[in-house]
Every structure is written in C-alpha cells, then in structure tokens.
Amino acid sequence: MAAITNSYRKNRISLNIAHKQGRFNGNDLLSFIIFINDIEFLFHNVKMIKGFVTDISFSLRGVEMASRIYDCLSKISAKIIENKDFLTDLDREIGDADHGVNMARGFEAVMEKLSPDNDDIGAVLKTTGMTLLSTVGGASGPLYGTAYMEAGKALMGKTSVTKDDMKAVFEAAIAGIQKRGKAERGEKTMLDAIIPAYEAYCSSVDGGKETADALEDACKAANEGIEFTKTIRATKGRASYLGDRSIGHQDPGATSATLTLEVITEFLKG
Ligand code: ADP
Ligand code: MG
C-alpha cells in the first residue's frame, strides 16, 4: 500500500518535472497519464477493500458454521412451539391434551440450555435429550429425550453430517425409542412415522440420492405414516385406553416427529 502510494507520488512528480522541462507539450497527454495512475491507485484500493471484506465474511462464515447445529435446533424448537395448539388438539382427541404443551415446554428449556458456540453436533443433541428428559412430562419426554440422547452418542465429536451419519441418527433414535417404549411399528405411535421415514431414507441413499433429497423422500414416507396412524387402533400409550375409538385419529407423536424431520430436511437443503 505504502509502496504504491510512493510510486504514485514519484510518477506524478517526475511527470510534472517532465512537463515543466517542456519534454511534454500537451497538457492532455499529462492528464491522461495522471488519470491512468489515478485509476491504478483506485484499483489497488478497491482490491485492498475487497480483500478485507473477503476476510471478514470468511470469519463470519466460520461463526455461522459453528452455530449450525444450534440454528437447526432453534428451528425445530420454533416449529414445535408454533404447532403447540395443533399437537395438543390431536392429543385431546385420543389422549390427555398435553402433547403440544409438553413438547413446547421441553424445547423452550432446550433453547435456554444450548450455547450457539457449541458446534459439536453429538454434544448438542445429548444436551437436548437430557433437557427433554428432565423437563417434559408424559410419555413423549422420556421417548424424545432418549431418541435425542442416543442420536447424540452416534454423532459425538462431529461438526458435519454424512449420509451414513444420518442413517446412524435414525437407527440410534429408533433403538432408543423402542428400548424405552417397547413399541413396534403399527401400534399408532411416533414410530409409525419414523420407521417408514428411515426405510425411505435408506433406499433413496442406496439408490444414489444425496442426503437432502433422500430426506425429502423420508418426509413423504413420514407423512404417509401419519395417514396410516388414522387407520389403526392404538395399542401403546394413553391412546390405547380408547381401543377401537382411537381409529380415525392421527397420532400426535407421529405428527411431532414428522414436523421435526421436515425442519431438519429444510435446514439441510439450505
Ligand atoms: P402422554 O401420552 O403421556 O400424555 P404425550 O401426549 O406427550 O404423552 O405423547 C403422546 C405420544 O407419545 C403418542 O402420540 C405416541 O406417538 C407417543 N407414544 C406413547 N407411547 C409410546 C410408546 N410406547 N412408544 C413410542 N411412542 C409412544
Ligand atoms: Mg398426552
């Protein structure tokens, strides 16, 4: 920068001397040369400013990367809170009208616990799970809590997610839910959305699709899973007390699981 400024000054001085000595007659030529020097000087400054701006945006991108998992969780939290009444109304039909309230309370607590600076996906998921476990009542607290904690174990220390990591997350979450709740597919629970979603994801990835596209297929399967829960009778959880009267209603847990998956998919699609 200083070198350019000096050479710029030197050029102008020598051009002025040349002009004074009469070696250049036309003011036009001198102005033209000075104009070229000015352009060069300006160009250099622009390059410097551009470099500076690039440096800033690079470091900002670094910060953004560090907060990606936090951003994803805050979007999930916002979606659950936004759907609090909807999920509660679904639970009113076949349960005790608290699913949305439970989940919203849990995610409010999660967002208070999480730090935007922590980019360890596994650690963040583990904190999420532990917070859900300790703040959400009913069946969904321990079930979602275990799902997030097990998913966290599968991704401990990772700051990005591969196709296989996503498979591992599904597998860990499903295993955690089944370990706690002892339910199988077809009992009108969240598993009726999550298991078909997992299967669709695997077959799309195995067929060569990228993570986000395979997750879109998973969302489609999860929504079909919700539709399926309307056709069956609950044999696990509070809804099972209704027996055949639970038929015709969609499962609240399958719905919250699908909303979560949709947010993750949107987030990864960027
Ligand atoms: P509670 O039924 O205790 O009031 P919530 O209303 O928060 O808890 O959650 C109900 C949801 O939990 C159900 O819609 C269902 O998807 C899910 N659920 C209940 N029992 C089980 C289970 N054993 N396994 C998997 N999911 C279950
Ligand atoms: Mg309930």
Q: How does this model look, in words?
A:
This protein has 11 helices and no strands. It is mainly α. Helix 1 packs antiparallel against helix 2 and helix 6 runs antiparallel to helix 7. The two termini are 39 Å apart. The chain has a single domain, classed as Serine Threonine Protein Phosphatase 5, Tetratricopeptide repeat (Alpha Horseshoe), CATH 1.25.40. The protein is globular and about 45 Å long. Adenosine-5'-diphosphate (ADP) is lined by residues 91, 95-96, 98-99, 102, 138-140, 143, 177, 181, 183, 189-191, 236-238, 251-254.
What ligands are attached or bound here?
A: adenosine-5'-diphosphate, magnesium ion
CATH topology: Serine Threonine Protein Phosphatase 5, Tetratricopeptide repeat
Total domain modules: 1
The percentage helix is: over 70%
**What's the CATH C level?**
Mainly Alpha
Strand content: under 5%
Order of helices and strands: HHHHHHHHHHH
Quickly give the CATH architecture. Alpha Horseshoe
**Mean pLDDT, rounded to whole units?**
84
**First-last Cα distance:** 39 Å
| Number of DSSP helical runs | 11
Principal-axes shape call: globular
Let me know the largest β-sheet.
Answer: none
Low-confidence spans: pLDDT under 50, at least 5 residues? 1-20, 46-66
Which structural class do the helices and strands define? Answer: mainly alpha
DSSP E strands, number? 0
